[in-house]
Amino acid sequence: MDTDPHPASDAAIEALRLRCAERALATLRAASPRHAALLEDAALRERVERVALASDFALDTLRRQPVLLEHLAATDPPPLAEPVLDAEQPTAWAAQLRLYRTAESTRLVWRDVLGLDEVDATLAGSTRLAENCLRLALDALEREFAQRHGLVRAADGTPQRLVVFALGKLGGGELNFSSDVDLVYAYPRDGESDGRRALAAEDYFARLGQQLARLLDEPTADGFCHRVDLRLRPFGNAGRVAWSFAAMDQYFQREGRDWERYAWLKARAVAGDTAAGEDWLETLRPFVYRRYLDYTALDGLRTMKAAIVAEMQRRDMADDLKRGPGGIREIEFLVQSLQLIRGGREPALRGRRLLPALDALVAAGQIAAQDGRALAQCYRFLRRLENRVQMLRDAQTHALPEDGEDRLRLALALGYGGWPELAQALAARRAQVSAEFDALLVPRRGQATPDALGGYWRALPGGGQAQALAEAGFVDADGADAALRDFARGNGVRALSDAARARLDRVVPALLAAAARSAQPDAALRRLLGLLQAVLRRASYLALLDEQPSALARLVDVLARSALLAERIAAYPLLLDELLDARVAGPLPDPGAMHAACAAAAQGQDDDQEAALRALNEVRQALSFRIALAALDRRQDAVASARQLAALADAVVGQVLRMAGAEVVAAHGTLPGGRFAVIGYGSLGGHELSFGSDLDLVFLYDADPAVVSDGARPLEPARWYARLAQKIVGLLGAVSSAGRLYETDMRLRPDGGKSLLVSSLASYEEYQVQRAWTWEHQALVRARAVAGDASLCAEFERVRARTLALPREPQALAGDVGKMRQRMRAELDRGDAARFDLKQGAGGLVDLEFLMQYGVLARAGEAPALLAPRDTPAIAEALAACGWLAHGEASALRDAHAALVDAGLGCTLDRRPRRVAEDTAVAAARAAIGRAVQDHGLDFDP
C-alpha cells in the first residue's frame, strides 16, 4: 500500500475541512428553506460538516430528500419507516425502494461517522436494510404473480412459496455498506400454479426471482436498491434460476464442491418461506460439515487462496481491503476453515456470523485467546475502513482510493491525523492477519519427510531395501519390508487419486519414522498398516495425518502401546479426531456431562432411529476412547477409569430406554400408571466396568394388572413391558456403522434363563425374600438402578435393603459362599504355573468380591451403612467402619484391588488375556486377599 511521500500540512488539512464543510452547507441551504432553517442550529451544523467530510453520498441524499435531515437531527435517530408498496401502483415500487434504501443507508453513515454506532451495529443495520427491501419487494411481487398466475400448489394441494437464500455476508448478518447480495432461489416441491395462466413451479419461481432481482438491481433515475448476484446457485450462470429442494439435494450429493461448502456455511433464508428454507438448510448440514475432523477443507482453502493471489497479482490488487494480503477474506477463510474442519463434531462452531464463530473457536481451544482478540480487532478495523471507503460515494469497491484528497478525507473522518498515520495502522493490522492465516497453512509444509525412509517407500513395491528399515530401528526388518510391499502393491493404494497418493507418500515415511522411535516398532508398524488400509478411501483421514504432525506422532504412540485402541481406530477411524481434541488432555467429563452428551446425540436424531443409534454409539466410542487414553497415559488410575466406563454405560442405557419407550408407545400407546426400571448387576452395578464388558441387566416393572395400554394395539402390562425390555436389548445390541453399543447378559434375573425377560416388582420381591439362592443375594450386593422411573428405582432399593438385611446363620452363609467360589475356581481359573489369572485365580478379584459380599450379607442386618456402597473399595471401607474388617486390613484390600484392576486394565488395553506373570504388586495383592479370606473363615480352594 502506497504512503504519501509528502504528507498534507496542517494548513492543507484545515483548508480541506473548510472546503468540504462550506460545500455541504451551501448545497443543503440551497436545497430548501427547511434545510436552511434546520442548519441555523450550530450543533446540527457541526454534525453535517463531519458527515460531509466522510460521505458525498450522504450529502447528496440529504439534498434530494429534504425531510431526512429533520429525522437525523434527533439525538439518536431511529430506523426509518418502511415504505408501503401499493398493489395498485407497481410502477412506483422501484422508486419507493430506492429512496428508502438511500435514506436508511444515509442514516447508517450518520450514526457511524458521529460515533453513535460501532461497526458491528453498522453491519447489522446494512443487513437488516437489505432483508427489509427483499421482503417488501418479494411480498409485492408475489401478490402480483398470484393475481396473474395463481399460487403454485404441490401434488397434495399444499401452496408453495419462493425461498430466498442469502449467502455471503448477507447470510452471515454482516453485510457491508455498498455490497451486492448473493442470493439463491429455491422452492420446497414441484407443482403447478392454479391461476388462469398456469405455470410449472420451476418457471413460476424463476420468473418471480428474475423480477425480484430486476426490481432491486436495475438502475433508475433514483439509482439502485441492491445489486443482486445469482451466480452462487448450482452450476452458476449455466444453472436454472430457481431449484426445488429435491433438485438441490441431488446437486449437492453429486456435484457439490469445496468452495460451495464455504459459501453455504453462511446460508440463511431471508425472504419468502423462510421456515421451509431453514428446515432445508438443516438437511444440507452434512454437506457443509462432515461428521469427522475434515482437514480436506484446507485443500479447498489453498485452491481458493491461490486463485485470489493470482487474481490480485494480475490486477494489481495490493490495496484491496477484501482480497489483498492480510485482508478481510483471509480472516473469513481462516475462521470458516476451522469451522469446516471441526464443526461436524462441535455444533457450537457452526455459526453463520464471523465474530461469534471466532469466539466459539477460542472457547473450543482452537485459537488462542490473545490471537482471537487480535483477529477480532483486525476484522472490525478492516470492515469499518471498508465501509468508509464505500460510504464515500456508495460505490461497490474494496480498494483504497488512489486520489490523494480522498485518502486524506478518509483518514481525517476516521480520526487520524493524516493518510500516513492511517496507512501505518492498516499495515500493522494486515501483517497480523497474514501471520495468522499463513500459520493455518503451514503444518503440511513443516512436516519434513525422513529422507531414507521416504526414498525406501517411494521405491516400493519393486525397489527399496529392507536394510533401510533395519537401520531405522525395526527388529524384524524383513517381515516389515514384506508387509509394506504387500500394502504398496495392494488395490487400495493403486486406486488412489494423484492427490491422495501424494498425501500417502508424505504420510507413510513420517509414520515409519515415528514407529521406529516408539517402544514397540514392529507392533506399531503392523497396527499402522491395518489402519492405513482402513482409511485409504477416506481422504479426510489421510488429510488429518498429513496436515497435523502432532496427530501423526500421537497416533503412532498410542498404537505402539495399545492393541485394543489400534483395533478400535482401524474399525472406527472417526476416533482419529480424538487425538486432536483439545479436551483429551484435560479432565474427563463427569457423569452429568456424559448424560448430556449422550442425550444430545440421540435426541438430535429422534426422527431416524438408525441415525440416533449411530450418533449415540459415536459418542460412546469417543468418550470410551478418551477414558482409554487417560488410562494409557497414566493420567488417572484404573479404578477411576472403570467407574467412568460404568457411568458412560448408565448414560447410554438411559437414552436407549427413552428410544425404546417411544417406539413401544408409538405401537401400543401408553400404560396408565405404569413404571419401569433397569437394574445393573455385576461390573456395571459395581462401577467396575472394563473396555468391551457386557452389561448384566435385570428389568422391573410395576403396573395395575387390570389396565391395558391406550394405543391402537393395546397390551396388558406384562406384555407391554416385555416388548419394552426386548426393544432395549435389541437396540443395545443392534449393529450400526459405528458398531454395537453393548452386549447384554440377562441371566441374573429371577430364575435365570427359564423366566420372563421382565419381572413385576411384587414377583421380584417375593423371589428375593423367599426363593433366591445365596449367590443371588451376593449378586444383589453390587446391584443398582441405572435408569427408569425414579419411584420404582427407590422401590428397588427398598427390596434390596430388605433382602440383604435378612438374618443369616454365619456358618451356613460361609459354607454357601465357599462352595460357590470353589466351583467357580475349578471351572473358570485359567491360570498356570507361569501366569496368574487376575480375575478367577486364588487371591484374585473374584475372591475379593466374594469376601466383600460375604461381609455385607453377614452384617447388613445390624449395620445399615453397608447397604449403600456397591464398589469394592467403598464396601471395604464400610466393613471397616462397622468393625467387620480391621482398618489396616481394609486399606490393604483396597490397595490389592487397585493393583489387580490396574494389571487387568493393562492386559485389556493391549488385547492380552488377563493372566500375568506375578510381580511384586500382584504378589502383595494376592497375599492380602488370601490372608483376609482365611482370617474370616472362608474356604475358596476347590
Automatic annotation (TrEMBL):
UniProt GO cellular component terms: cytosol
Enzyme class: transferase
UniProt-listed Enzyme Commission number(s): 2.7.7.89, 2.7.7.42
Reaction(s) this enzyme catalyzes, per UniProt: [glutamine synthetase]-O(4)-(5'-adenylyl)-L-tyrosine + phosphate = [glutamine synthetase]-L-tyrosine + ADP; [glutamine synthetase]-L-tyrosine + ATP = [glutamine synthetase]-O(4)-(5'-adenylyl)-L-tyrosine + diphosphate
Region Adenylyl transferase, residue ranges: 454-942
Molecular function terms from GO: [glutamate-ammonia-ligase] adenylyltransferase activity; [glutamine synthetase]-adenylyl-L-tyrosine phosphorylase activity; ATP binding; ligase activity; magnesium ion binding
Superkingdom classification of source: Bacteria
GO biological process: regulation of glutamine family amino acid metabolic process
Residues annotated as domain PII-uridylyltransferase/Glutamine-synthetase adenylyltransferase: 303-440, 819-901
Keywords: ATP-binding, Ligase, Magnesium, Multifunctional enzyme, Nucleotide-binding, Nucleotidyltransferase, Transferase
Residue ranges of domain Glutamate-ammonia ligase adenylyltransferase repeated in the record: 47-279, 553-798
Adenylyl removase: region residues: 1-444
Listed cofactors: Mg(2+)
Task of the protein: Involved in the regulation of glutamine synthetase GlnA, a key enzyme in the process to assimilate ammonia. When cellular nitrogen levels are high, the C-terminal adenylyl transferase (AT) inactivates GlnA by covalent transfer of an adenylyl group from ATP to specific tyrosine residue of GlnA, thus reducing its activity. Conversely, when nitrogen levels are low, the N-terminal adenylyl removase (AR) activates GlnA by removing the adenylyl group by phosphorolysis, increasing its activity.
Record NCBIfam families: PRK11072.1 (NF008292)
Family: Belongs to the GlnE family.
Protein name: Bifunctional glutamine synthetase adenylyltransferase/adenylyl-removing enzyme
Protein source organism: Pseudoxanthomonas broegbernensis
Gene: glnE
